Amino acid sequence: MTQAPENARRTPDEEAIKYVLITAREHDVKFIRLWFTDIVGTLKGFAITIDELEGILRNGASFDGASIEGLTRANESDMIAMPDPSTFQVLPWRPRTDAVARLFCDIETPTGEPSTADGRQVLRRNLLRASEMGFTFYVAPEIEYYYDSEATKEETNRNRSEYFDQTSVDGTGANLRRDTVLTLEKMGIPVKHSHHEVGVGQHEIDLRHMNALTMADSIVTFKVVAKELAALTGAHATFMPRPFGDRHGSGMHTHMSLFEGDNNAFFEADDKFNLSEIGRYFIAGLMHHAAEICVVTNQWINSYKRLLPGLEAPIYASWTTGNFGNLIRVPSYRPGREESVRVEYRAPDPAANPYLLFSVLLAAGLDGIENKLSLPEPLEEDVFQMSDSELSERGVTRLPRTLDEAIRLAENSQLLEKALGSTVVDNFLANKRLEWQEFSSTVTDYELSRYRHL
After folding, report:
1. Burial zone of 315 (CB within 10 Å; 0-12 exposed, 13-18 middle, 19+ buried)
2. Which of 3.30.559.30, 3.40.50.300, 3.10.20.70, 3.40.50.12160 is the CATH number of 2-115?
3. pTM of the model
4. How far is the first Cα of the chain from the last one, in angstroms, to the nearest whole number?
5. What are phi and psi of 267, to 5 degrees?
6. How do the residues of the chain divide into helix, strand and coil, expressed in percent and rounded to 5?
7. CB-CB contact of 32 with 47 (8 Å)
8. Over the stretch 256-267, which tens digit does the pLDDT of each residue have?
C-alpha cells in the first residue's frame, strides 16, 4: 500500500492526529489495521506499521478500490483509505507488547472526493440531510447471535438455557458474552443490556444509543470482537439470521429517535401515545417504504427464513405499541423520560450492512416527514390472526417472502436511489442477484433426501 499524494488530501485535524500518535506510543502499538466494509458490509482492510501512521493519517493510503464492490468486483481502481482519527482504538484481545490498533476509514477518490461506493460515506451524506432539516439521528440496536460450538449432539440436548436464563448450563456462552461486553467497554462502546435469548446457544447484546455513524462502526467492531473471542475457545459466533431450522432466528431490532438540539422530536406530552406529529410522519415513512428497503434490512437468502410466523419476527408492515409480531413498535413511555420515546424497527437482522441499513431507515423516515404521510391507527390485534381483507382495510401490506422478491421490489425504488446513490444501488443489487442465482442453481440436501430415490 502506498501513501496518497499530499495535494489530494483534505486539511487534516492536527489535534486529532496528535492524540492518535501519543496514544499509539503509550500503548506500544506496532501495527494499525485500516478498516472499511465492502458494499454488502463485509469487513475489509489492511495493516500498516507505526512508522507509516502519521503520514497516512494526513494523506491516506492507496489501495485497490474494486474490493469494496463485493462479489461483482471488476477492474482494479485506485482509491484512498482515509483514516478517521476519532475511531482509533487498541484491540484488547491482541498482545499488549507490539500491540495492534484499528482505525475506520472513509474511502475517497485519488482527488479527495468521497467514493460513491463507500457505505460510510453514504451514511455521512444521509446524516447531513437530516442535519439540514434540523435533526440528529440516534440509534440503538439489539444484536442477537448464536455461539455455534463443536459440542456433541448430547451436549447440545443438555443445554436448556432459555430467554433471560441466568444459569451456566449453556456451556461457555455466558462467559463469552460477558467477555465480549467487557471488551466492548474497553474499546469505548457502551453496552446497555446483555442476556440469553430464546434459542439454545442464542445471546443478545444491546448497545447504548448513540449517533448513527458511530453506531455503525460499533456494530462492525462488535462482530469482530464476538468472533475473535469465541475463536479463542474453539467456538464460533454466527450472525446468520437463522442458522438452525429448529430454533428462533437472530434479529437486530433497531431503536431510532430524532433530536432537535436537546429535545426529542418524537415526544409529545398531550398525545395518547406521547408520540409527536414528526414521530407519526417518521413511522408512516417507514411503513410506506418497508417492502422496497427490505433488500437492505434483510439482505441474505437466509434472512427470509427468519421472517416467518411464529418466530417473533415481522412479516407485515404494521405498527403497534405492544404486540411483538409487528414491524414497528413504539415502546411504552415512562413519565419523566421524554428522551426515551423512540421507534423500534423489528425487521433488520445482524447480517445487514449497518451503514446502508441506517441510511435507508433514516431516508424512509425523513421522506414521511417531508411528505407528511398519514399514519393509520396502531394495530393492537394479533396480526397473524387477521384475514387479508382485514389487513388491507387497515393499510397493512406484506413484506417480501424471498430475497428474489425483495430484489424486484427494490429495482425501481426512488427512495433507495436517493438514499444510497445509483452506484451503491446498482452494485448492491448486482451482488444480491448473483447470490440468488447461485442459490437457485444449487442442489440442496433437502432436494436430495426428498427426491433422489423417487
Report:
1. buried
2. 3.10.20.70
3. 0.91
4. 57
5. -95, 135
6. 40, 20, 40
7. yes
8. 999 999 999 999
